[in-house]
Dihydrolipoamide dehydrogenase (Chlorobaculum tepidum), 467 residues
Amino acid sequence: MSTKFDVIIIGGGPGGTPAAMQLASQGKTVLLVEESGKLGGACLFVGCIPSKIIRHWADEYAVKLKYSAQEALSPEDREAAWNEIMRKMQTILSQRSGAAMQMLKHLSNLRFVAGHAKFVSNNELVINEKDTGRKEKYTFNKAIIATGSHSFIPPFKGNGVQDVLTSEVLFSQDKLPESLLIIGGGPIGIELAQMLTKLGTKCTIIELLDSILYGVVETEFVSIISNQLSSLGVNIYTSSQVQEINKSDGHFDVTFTDANGSEHKENFEDVLVVTGKVPNIESLNLDSTDIKYDRKGIIVDEYLETSVKGIYATGDVTHGPKFAHTATYEAHIASANISAGNNQKVDFSKNTWVLFSEPEIVAAGFTEAQAVQEGYDIITGVYDYKIDAAAQVMNSPFGYLKYVVNKKNSEIIGVHICMNNASSLAGEASLIIANRLILKNVAETIHPHPTLTEAFGILAQKMLSKS
């Protein structure tokens, strides 16, 4: 005997919980199942929120250090700082997850189950309940798979591979390492290198590709971030490859080759691997269904529907961008399509994300290289914040705003910002891209003075006058 729901959603993160609440508020009977028993997903517990908490307090300690007589945090101060940050982090995480759970309780037709779900057919699954150990069978009319992803660890040689850290476990460490090798020079690796260095950890980055942040931000911004990392004392090896990771006497001995083919052997207290994500699909028993998938995740169409009609997938478990806010966007798209038929398509060209580095980077829409690759005939424009009134008032006259514009119709298809607190400008960048604004729209917008947002109108007007 099985219990039937209108919709079953697997995964209580940003790709699942918003969908559950949206569908339940529309009167559908919804079952939300989350293996951990907590709402929030990887972003809340092991990703974007913990890292931003650590970043904030790392900056606080860096400021205190600047105005003290110390050149660096003592081992005792580092331990005390880390313990304090961990306490603050756990408080925030508990508050946010608990608040989400309370919101669910207001929806009488939404049931939450802590447990592991696996499919047994195209409309049926079994849940192994976490608290009781019981296995219960459920059927559904529609379903959403939002199980997220986990860190990918390449098949390195050596006896130390099994002991390397990933971003999932870094934030639960009892103490900070004295030295850390970060394998992977993407956004996560860059953010962590900067914040941990400020807390006194000596960081080294090894990146397989030609540069850090390869292909994900504007090329002229990469050198800015590289220089900042170097000024903090971070060693960066690009076009370099790890050959072997061994562990002895509590330390890691790592062998790698650099861009010139020279071999290096260096010792680190810890090794962190941030080389990408793998979708959480192994234990879903998808082979008992007709759902198509590959190593990159579940295959969905433009409506986020899988190869099985009525089953949708959102977030990191699919081929799409791996961001919490994008997963939430997808959750609303999938919910709308379940409620009203497939009438809403995803459009990742309007995605926006922030690199919380120093300086920060906002990327909305296409980069210049991506736009060219997509076949657009483009023009670009750059605003230098050194001439900006607000930036000068704030004693932070550094930064750049860049537009990538479709020459055919003057639509702004890319907005990119590199400056301190660039994230505060991400909202306008998002609106420009999401609403497909043209230069004239932005130029005619009255931006208040003196604010950092004035640059959006000034740059648009400048580019219009040259066209």
